[in-house]
């Protein structure tokens, strides 16, 4: 496995890859866990060469404190990537990705009007900036993203198509701890007490899925119920609980108006913000 700490090194390595090879790309912000490793393994199945980037993208953080304390574990990450069979790891500098200030504003098709969008202004535009920049550099055939970031995945699919990138976006299922907590780099910021109560989030989502099938509660009522259940634990505080059409991400008011429905939540455990989602239909 080759580790490239600069754009020029990466470009040299990419130039050695045969044009006939299908390259698979896994963009990450590091602090890798089993969820990322599952993306790398999936990439291996479909691609001849697997490239992983590790870059904590400053433009997608609307909160400077969040950026500052985002976990950085590059050395360990590289060890795990080597074991998982990555071929190239790209660890660029901010200057490599943004030689000048990126002022681009992306059309996100209104997919950012719910969920994370209004709560993290500029976040998805920053994701679009870094992902398009990385696609321009790496020119992958396939790119892999986890379903834990359900809204991010929809938005990346949208602008990839809109901007005609010849990249196939492959989604991979959320990987969970044994107790159901969705794996996330942020989990390592949880205190022992917070970590102990965090599984309540997914437990409640699963109960919500059962309740949605009975259709006794309206979507709004079900969101209120989930909010109450999660907040009944004094260490957790929901930021939002939303039920959206899985394709348009519009809020769902009536169960029968939509064929595919997802419930998405963001929950604070202290100052650590956790997100999760579940398919209801
Ligand atoms: O999901 C992430 O880790 C990041 O948002 C991504 C896609 C690597 C862009 O920085």
Can you walk through the features of this model?
There is one protein chain. The protein has 281 residues and is α/β, with parallel strands linked by helices. Helices cover 39% and strands 20% of the residues. The chain has 11 helices and 9 strands. The strands form 2 sheets. A 6-stranded parallel beta sheet has the order 1-4-3-2-5-6, sandwiched between helices. A 3-stranded antiparallel beta sheet has the order 7-8-9. α2 (34-46) links the parallel β2 (23-28) and β3. α7 (123-138) crosses α8 (150-162) and α10 runs antiparallel to α11. The protein binds pantoate. Residues 27-29, 57, 60, 127, 130-131, 149, 152 line the site of pantoate (PAF). Pantoate is lined by residues 27-29, 57, 60, 127, 130-131, 149, 152.
Averaged pLDDT, please? Answer: 97
What radius of gyration results from the CA coordinates? 19 Å
Poorly predicted runs: none
Number of strands: 9
Shape: globular
**Any ligands, ions or cofactors bound here, and which?**
pantoate
Largest sheet: 6 strands, parallel
Q: Work out the strand percent.
A: 15-25%
End-to-end Cα distance, whole Å, is 41 Å
Give me the secondary-structure category.
alpha/beta
Q: Give me the side-by-side strand order of the main sheet.
A: 1-4-3-2-5-6
Provide a count of the helices: 11
Question: What level of helicity do the residues show?
Answer: 25-40%
- Along the chain, the helix and strand elements come as EHEHEHHEHHHEHEHHHEEE
Describe how the helices and strands are arranged:
Elements: E1 2-4, H1 7-15, E2 23-28, H2 34-46, E3 49-54, H3 64-68, H4 74-84, E4 88-90, H5 94-97, H6 116-119, H7 123-138, E5 142-146, H8 150-162, E6 168-172, H9 192-197, H10 200-214, H11 219-231, E7 236-245, E8 261-269, E9 272-279
Parallel strand pairs: 1-4, 2-3, 2-5, 3-4, 5-6
Antiparallel strand pairs: 7-8, 8-9
């Amino acid at each position: 496995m080759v580790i490239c700490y600069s754009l020029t090194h990466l470009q040299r390595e990419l130039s050695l890859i045969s044009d006939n090879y299908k390259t698979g790309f896994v963009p990450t912000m590091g602090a890798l866990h089993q969820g990322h490793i599952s993306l790398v393994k999936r990439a291996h199945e479909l691609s001849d060469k697997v490239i992983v980037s590790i870059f904590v993208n400053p433009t997608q953080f609307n909160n400077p404190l969040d950026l500052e304390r985002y976990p950085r574990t590059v050395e360990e990450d590289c060890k795990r990537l080597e074991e998982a069979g990555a071929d190239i790891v790209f660890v660029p500098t901010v200057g490599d990705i943004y030689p000048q200030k990126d002022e681009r504003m992306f059309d996100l098709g209104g997919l950012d009007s719910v969920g994370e969008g209004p709560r993290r202004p500029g976040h998805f535009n920053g994701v679009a900036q870094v992902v398009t920049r990385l696609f321009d550099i790496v020119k992958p055939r396939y790119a892999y993203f986890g379903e834990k970031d359900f809204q991010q995945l929809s938005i990346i699919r949208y602008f990839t198509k809109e901007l005609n990138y010849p990249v196939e976006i492959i989604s991979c299922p959320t990987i969970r701890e044994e107790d159901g907590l969705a794996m996330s780099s942020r989990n390592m910021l949880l205190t022992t007490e917070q970590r102990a109560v965090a599984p309540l989030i997914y437990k409640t989502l699963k109960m919500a899925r059962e309740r949605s099938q009975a259709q006794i509660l309206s979507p709004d009522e079900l969101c209120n119920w989930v909010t109450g259940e999660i907040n009944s634990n004094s260490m957790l505080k929901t930021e939002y609980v939303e039920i959206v059409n899985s394709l348009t991400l519009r809020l769902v008011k009536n169960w029968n108006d939509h064929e595919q429905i997802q419930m998405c939540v963001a929950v604070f455990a202290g100052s650590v913000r956790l997100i999760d989602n579940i398919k209801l239909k």
